[in-house]
Please model this.
Amino acid sequence: MILSFDASQELSVAFAAIACIAAVALIVIYIPMLRRLYHALSDSPAPESGTLPVSVIVYTYANSKGLEEVIKALHEQHYDGSTEIIVVNDGKDNGVEDFLTTVENTYPGLRRTFTPYDTRNISRKKLALTLGIKAAHNPIVLFLTSESRLPGPCWLSSMTAPFHNREIDLVLGYAGPGASDTESHRLSRGMRHDILVGDMEWLSDAIDGKPWRGDGDNIGIRRSMFFNNMGFGNSLNLQYGDDDVFVSEVATGSNTSVVLSPDSRVSTEAPDDTPGYYRIKRERHRLMEGFCSKRPNTRIAATYVLPWIWLLSTIAASVCILGMSGGAFSGTNTAFSCAVLGGIALAGIALWSILGIAFNRVEMALEQRHLRWSLPYVLLSRPIRRWSWHRRKAPRSWQQPC
Model:
């Protein structure tokens, strides 16, 4: 049906205004966040050799090959302080036990513990980490997994540096997908970008003094803080949450530091026999989002909704223009049509150019593959992927079975 001239004009202007408002809102949300993160990445100095006594807990689940790489990298660290490495073998995998038996005389300071395979009624990873923390002798504890890949010999110094400030109880580090996984079938383009945008959000919030999540592949705590919080006692009914629910409970702007120097940034490498590693990791964080009390739900929801408001309003404004009586580009309609279409085109170009430049700067600083011109697809598809996931898997597995 062809609308009347006045109605088409009014509707096209209204939809164009909504599209422009949505574009401005997205810029207002993302640019401060990305600017904070970029400046933090650019201003991260190289660390001096550390001296604080530290225990490194390496969590592993049936990944002896990855564990070997982590232990070797830890013993190549340039660190002047006292260190110990505690390997927690979740499920007491025989391959991991055999490897540790062969290298325990080669690497001094290497200790181990395990959780039985048939552990029930408690999160196995939380139990494993708790056993590791209890076994630690030093006041500072850093966490890695057998999937973590250290960037170089200064990782220990970088992650322990903030603990020289006695007010700091929690250090959050970055852990992104490794190059080998990024270039292989293990990590799809959409999932890689979804993970990257999500990491940018929580890192920027932590830099802004509002921490609510971390990454268990690269995190540090004071041992005393863990026990003062009764460990994972407040979330023992949850299968997961060791690096998000726990951080949301204990982290504040004054007791948390974010370390983003190149020497601190860990990469992750999925085990060869676990093709769904990143999907599982992402879904665990999604399951726990509702239990992170400090998560900025309103802002994150806005980043899901606003790209679609912009797109649908842009399409609606264009349809109204084309539906004007007498034709969109005939007579007196020409100037009006050009003004409205030009306005929404400029808004779209400005939106994706500004966001594209800002995102790419941060991605370059993080040494991750660039979104480039796929950014509109990434931001528009994020809510679809989330909705699809909720449709396929209703989050009923957040609690341990009795």
Observations:
- The two ends are 60 Å apart (CA to CA).
- The CA atoms of residues 62 and 94 lie 8 Å apart.
- Residues 46-291 form a domain with the Spore Coat Polysaccharide Biosynthesis Protein SpsA; Chain A fold (CATH 3.90.550.10).
- The chain has two domains: 5-37+297-392, 46-291.
